[in-house]
Amino acid sequence: MPKKFTSKKIGFLGGGQLAQMLALRAHEMGHIPFVLSANSTDPAAQVVRHWQQGNVYSVKDLQNFLEKIDVVTFESEFIDIGKLKQARKNQKVKAYPSLANMKMMQDRFSQKKSLIKYELPTSPFIKVSNYNQARKAADFFNGPFVLKQRFHGYDGYGTFVIHKRTQLHKMKSQIEQNPHGFIAEKFIPFQRELAITVVRSSNKSLTFLPLVESLQQNSRCLWVKGPVNHSKIASLKKKIQNYVESINYVGAIAFELFDCGKQLLINEIAPRVHNSAHYSQDALNYDQFELHLLAITQQSLPKVKSFSPGFAMYNLLGTKTTSKIQLSQPPQCHLHWYHKIDSRPGRKMGHINCLSSSADKALKHLKDARKGFKL
Ligand SMILES: Nc1ncnc2c1ncn2[C@@H]1O[C@H](COP(=O)(O)OP(=O)(O)O)[C@@H](O)[C@H]1O
Ligand SMILES: [Mg+2]
User: Fold this and answer.
1) Which residues pair with 280 in a beta bridge?
2) Nearest CA to ligand 1 atom 1
3) Contacts of 49 (CB under 8 A, 6+ apart)
4) pLDDT tens for residues 5-39?
5) 0.85 exceeded by the pTM?
6) How remote is the CA of residue 318 from the centroid of ligand 1, in Å?
7) Which of 90, 140, 287, 312 could lock 280 by a disulfide, CB 3.0 to 4.6 Å apart?
8) Residue 178: pLDDT above 80?
9) What is the distance between the alpha carbons of residues 138 and 107, in angstroms, rounded to a whole number?
10) Can you tell me the distance from the alpha carbon of 322 to that of 344, in angstroms, rounded to the nearest whole number?
11) What pLDDT shows up at residue 364?
């Protein structure tokens, strides 16, 4: 017998493209999407009937929002856990992933500590809270290392590769003034970057998406292709499964990986739907957005199947500041456009997906297709 379900009011904090794609999918799946964001022009605000103008860092705005919905979920890990807890007091609204897991993962230091605790392979790291400790880190690694802000880093913001002491010296005031501090980790001369997303439901079922390769340009994802393979992925998947089960994680979670040849290291984890799994919208029988929504509404998760032997995703990144945008509909490609009002250099404006007989063919097709857009 197919399982019956009641439509849920699902709230998304934030109005970016991830909330937009979640909201659109939630609507199609029979749920009622609610969005809390600052501007009516935000990508997610444009696609829902229940948009609340507000600040995701205001207890009052959060309170008003939470009392209207059954479940709240996040498009970003940068939420204020304290304010959310305060706003959620005496409310029956569920939060997935749990606030405890969001709190642990939004801080790179506690995230890395949890990887070590559950024996997941990751680069060596130390905590850096002041300039003196940064100098000690340089001694400790005795070679190139990476300084990363503990909080609020994304798309390379807050990540600094340090090759020389003079670089560190120039960053002295920046290091001293950051209220939350940094972690320093060993620079990893990886061969390529990979990613894998797993989704776990509040009913405890779990499903993995395929392993993919991604290319970052200036620390920002440019493309993803797959499926790819690695000799260590089967054993890593077992450890990842143990990890998400041990911390009772609910929802989609993406693992960014460094392929070091014989070794696979985890670079970082994102407790949400992720750019590296956007290909799933066209390449898989269930996409990451639907899986995340099934997971947070206590449904069983299906095994995912790929529609084709190869697939790829190419981000449509802005190249200049302009509202004069030229779109294109390249053949054999699926366009996903976020409807941001202006383009800016490096801004994620949309993405295109393509299926083909191999990952490389799909990617080549997308690289050509990109030329049709003026952003
Ligand atoms: N330890 C490292 N060694 C080498 N390159 C790194 C290291 N950490 C990060 N990078 C590079 O910087 C990019 C951004 O760093 P990441 O930790 O993923 O931060 P963000 O949150 O900005 O994505 C990575 O995708 C990778 O290309
Ligand atoms: Mg990253």
Assistant:
1) none
2) 187
3) none
4) 899 999 999 999 999 999 999 999 999 999 999 99
5) yes
6) 21
7) 287
8) yes
9) 22
10) 7
11) 98
